[in-house]
Amino acid sequence: MKLIIETDIGRDFDDFIALCYLIDAGVDIKVISISPGDSDQVAITKFLLKECGLNVPVGVSSLYRDKKSISGVHTQLLKKYKYAEIEKHDGLSIDLINGVLEEANKFLSEGEESDIEFFGCGPLDSISQITKYPRCASVQGGFVSYSFLKNKGIVPRIQLDKFKDIEFVQTFNLSSNSKAAGTFLKMPFKKRFISKNLCHTIVYDGKVHNVMDSFRAKSRAGEILREAMLMYLKKHPHGKIIHDPTAAICHLHPDIATWVNGRLVCENEKWGTIELLPYNCEIIGDIKYESLLYYLSHGL
Q1: Cα separation of 202 and 7, whole Å?
Q2: Which residues on adjacent β-strands are paired with residue 191?
Q3: With pLDDT > 70 as the criterion, what percentage of the chain qualifies?
Q4: How confident is the model at residue 105 (pLDDT cuts 50, 70, 90)?
Q5: Residue 122, by phi and psi: left (phi above 0), alpha (psi -120 to 50) or beta?
Q6: Could you tell me the fold of the domain covering 2-298?
Q7: Which residue intervals of 206-260 are DSSP H helices?
Q8: Where are the domains of the chain?
């Protein structure tokens, strides 16, 4: 699979874990776009790529950033392996992304699809500006109410009290740039969204880590994933909600999820799914938890 990734790595630890998983699974990453693009975000991304022997261009959605975005495990890893905490990006994300998409579309006949796919685990700052299109996309974000799912005949295995009787919520990846998300939703390719309420049911804790550790990592990315999560759990024994790794696994293995068609819309910077044609996406309703853990632990 050839993949373009847009991430706000460093803002939340699980973006890094999602990248580890995708590399471990053997995805052919063509571009990593960082939002907004602080030099320390670039540093932790390039650390992972260098450790895994990969030469992938790393772009930024905003030039000349000098703020600090990383901390915690990111900083521990850079210090442990003696990597710089500041790195230079390889260009503006939209230029790098458009270059990849232009090349992929160059020799297509009329009606043929590109072989490039897109995965979003951050604001859709750059992908919303593309001039050529990927084949399909998955994005961590959005929201689908339990009442909407019930009307579709779906009762999720786990329902969280904090999301009951709620139709619209803020979800960072969409709400932080709602205009970009709205533009992205209008683009003519298949889109899947891994909703906030489903993601909040997936927690990487000590029990999950023991399962992970029972399977030997098949790559350097898999080793770093385990090492990073162990660092995190030492300070946060209750565990980590892994929104972005869940979404990454769903992109590679959509068959482990139950999807519904709907229209994802924004109201007052909050997002929800409604029954209105034309639909603009598929959104996740439920997931096979055992399968998700299997793919994460095996790097598949």
Answers
A1: 19
A2: 137
A3: 100
A4: confident
A5: beta
A6: Inosine-uridine Nucleoside N-ribohydrolase; Chain A (3.90.245)
A7: 206-213, 220-235, 243-252
A8: 2-298
Beta carbons within 10 angstroms of residue 85's beta carbon: 15
- Say whether pLDDT at 241 is over 90: yes
- Phi-psi sector, 259: left (phi>0), alpha (psi -120 to 50), beta: beta
pLDDT of residue 109: 79
Distances (CA, A) of 113 to 133, 188, 200: 9, 11, 34
Q: How many CB atoms lie within 10 A of CB 215?
A: 14
Positive or negative: CA dihedral 269, 33, 128, 196: negative
- CA 200/CA 164 separation, integer angstroms: 13
Total residues found in the chain within this entry: 300
CA distance 145 to 228: 33
Cβ-based neighbour number of residue 288 at 10 Å: 14
**C-alpha closest to that of 139 among 129, 124, 157, 155:** 124
Q: What pLDDT is stored for residue 275 in this prediction?
A: 97
Backbone angles phi, psi at 214, to 5 degrees: -75, -10
Give SS3 for 54.
Answer: coil
Contact assessment for residue 288 and residue 257, using Cβ atoms and an 8 Å cutoff:
yes
Q: Give yes or no for a contact between 287 and 258, defined as CB atoms under 8 angstroms apart.
A: yes
Q: Which helix (H) or strand (E) holds 248?
A: helix 243-252
Q: How far is CA 198 from the centre of its chain?
A: 14
For residue 92, list its beta bridge partners. 60
